[in-house]
Amino acid sequence: MLTFLALASVVLLGIVPEQSQAIVIYTGWERHALVGSDIRLSCSFFSWRWTSEDVTFSWTYRPDGSRDSISIFHYTGGAPYVDNKGPFRDRVEFVGNPGRRDGSILIKNLDFNDNGTFTCDAKNPPDIVGRPSSVRLLVFEKVPIQAGVITGAIIGSVLGLLVLIVVIYYLMRFLVARRVFSLSVSKHGKKKKEGSQQRQLWTPPLSPYLPKRTVSLPPHPSLSLVCLSLSRSLFSP
To answer: How far apart, in whole angstroms, are the C-alpha atoms of residue 67 and residue 88?
Structure first.
């Protein structure tokens, strides 16, 4: 009985169709191009399964101000199919690699009328459930400066100014330290010169063995008067 139930479960699991999983599709957000130039519109997808031989890519186009979309490209069964009757006749080329999950196309000789939204859809059976991804194309005579470029220029200018301030700060510190060192060296040299001059003016003391000079002082006038008065008193009659 248990063997029968096990065999029955295996058979039931084998005949249950494999469930599909979600597929995630990626394109750019917005592209800018010049009139008369070519542009590549990228499309890729993520799937948990290996890339199937039945992988498909589809591109549709909706002009600005319109609600209707038209099909311009389809890839299936290993072959690309391009719309040869619409506005992109002979101007769409498949440049992707389905084996690497790349469904990119190249649009040639752009015109102002090509402004619009391009939508890519991909299927990787059994993964067929996914939301298409869209990219907007804007065609100009001159490509405008994007906000990212302006932001990068501002950030670069600020960083350059900060680097310049730091360099000036350390340069001033170096010059001040060099000036202080020069002053200290000159002051030390001046003191050393004054000390040497004082040593040259100093005279050594006289030796005790040298003969001493006697200095005769004149007699005191009061003492002479006393002696004269005594001599007169002694020899007077």
So the answer is: 18
| Spatial separation of the C-alpha atoms in residues 43 and 15, rounded to whole Å | 35
Q: Identify which of 41, 73, 83, 77 has the alpha carbon closest to the alpha carbon of residue 56.
A: 77
Q: With beta carbons less than 8 A apart as the criterion, state whether 115 and 137 touch.
A: yes
Which helix or strand (DSSP H or E) is residue 171 part of?
helix 147-201
Tokens 């199919």, residue located: 81
Determine the Cα angle at 133 with ends 128 and 137, to 5°: 150
Is residue 135 within 8 A of residue 29, CB to CB? The reply is: yes
pLDDT in tens, 164-220: 999 998 888 888 888 888 877 777 766 666 666 665 555 555 555 555 555 454 555
What is the distance in angstroms between the CA of the first residue and the CA of the last residue of the chain?
A: 188
The span from the CA of 54 to the CA of 86, in Å, is 26
Q: How far apart are CA 26 and CA 121, in angstroms?
A: 9
- State phi, psi for 104 to the nearest 5 degrees: -75, 150
pLDDT per residue as tens digits for the range 105-136? 999 999 999 999 999 999 999 998 899 999 99
Determine the Cα–Cα distance for residues 16 and 10; give it in Å rounded to an integer. 10
d(CA 79, CA 89): 18
